[in-house]
């Protein structure tokens, strides 16, 4: 394993909305592309999902049935690789309609926004 410390500085901040039925992970990637953020951190979020699918440590997925699976917390980053491909890695805690709490990485393409989803992104400018 290679370890290191990346140096850089924080750039612009974007406050944006992801529309209903748009995937959470794909929506964050799209927002970064629209704003020209090559790398970014999620600094805040508020909203709910129709249903949620989280990755498990064993490689499987956990499906959380809605409607209205609430996001309790969301953290993550967006990175652009050498080919220009952008990928968001988002991890969070959600509460199902019965109030049970679940956590883990969100599976891209499987987490549709319920009504609206507000997110704050901060651009990262590596040296």
Automatic annotation (TrEMBL):
> Entry's InterPro entries?
PPC_dom
One family name in Pfam for this protein: PCC
Q: Which keywords label this protein? A: DNA-binding
Molecular function (Gene Ontology), one example: DNA binding
Identify the domain of life.
Bacteria
Instruction: Tell me the ranges covered by the PPC domain, including all copies.
Output: 8-127
Query: Is the keyword Protease in the record?
Result: no
Question: What is this protein identified as?
Answer: DNA-binding protein
């Amino acid at each position: 394993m290679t370890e290191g410390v990346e140096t850089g500085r924080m750039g612009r901040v974007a406050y944006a909305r992801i529309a209903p039925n748009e995937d959470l992970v794909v929506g964050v990637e799209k927002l970064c592309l629209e704003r020209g953020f090559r790398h970014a951190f999620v600094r805040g979020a508020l909203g709910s999902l129709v249903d949620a699918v989280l990755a498990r440590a064993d490689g499987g997925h956990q499906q959380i049935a809605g409607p209205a699976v609430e996001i309790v917390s969301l953290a993550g980053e967006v990175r652009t690789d050498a080919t220009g491909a952008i990928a968001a890695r988002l991890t969070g805690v959600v509460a199902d309609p019965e109030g049970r709490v679940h956590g883990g990485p969100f599976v891209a393409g499987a987490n549709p926004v319920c009504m609206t989803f507000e997110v704050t992104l901060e651009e990262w400018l590596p040296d």
